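Hello Y.,

Per our agreement to keep a running log of every chain we model this quarter, I'm adding this entry. I've kept the format consistent with earlier entries: sequence first, then predicted structure.
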Amino acid sequence: MEPDTREIKRCRLSPKYIKCQEIKQKATEDMEERLKELGYRMKFPAKTGDLSRRWCSAYLKIMVADTVVSNLDRMGELEHLGGKRHKNDVKILVVSGERRGESKGRSKYNEMEIHRTHAEKRAHRLVHQWRPVIDYSEKDVWEVLKRHCVNPHPCYRAGWNRCSCAMCIFSTPKLFAGIRELYPEEYALLKQDEKILGFTLDNKCDLDTFVGNTKSCVYHGDKQALRSLITGEFAIDEVYVKEIWKYPAGAFHGAEGGPC
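Predicted structure for the entry above:
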């Protein structure tokens, strides 16, 4: 196994992305209109199952992974995956953790299937996707972590019921109240974006109205989890629980607040 060099590799940027970056750097009066011509949305993603409108999932999650898999040969990574670079040598397994119980959309997923980036004839790349916990209940997942003494992610221990984007558009008022408590500067910037764009994150009202006086989801009993979330530091010796394993504060609060 090759040593971890901690080198960050980047896929090739699209021409439109590069052009948008150039336009934003110059910041001319017609910047907004020029960006719109290139597909710059100037809006928050919509709270819908349609990925063309809920573009955050498509562009910031799904397509990111697809781009990496499709460009492994260009980044010199195929040697680690398929040995010698001969035709049909490259076989990739994409493993993901969706569960049917999380949403109506995910209830229809297959446990094993051909991945979107599969290109056996064109690129000699065989790609399959496996969802090993697709039929697990939430309790099943926690029991696996408990059995192996794995420390749950800090966001669950700090009171969040889902480990998704910190300010996911589907977040409930309680979750956004948690963001307002732990990340006041980021929360303020999100409110500022609503004013700049002239477009609210929620379909019906602005962020402050959406959150109102809702009680924060934050659980203050796990100081270590709060420290990790605020500082972004995750120590290796925190991966496993050394004492008695406990369900995190965010466990068993349903799937509300995540993507549909």
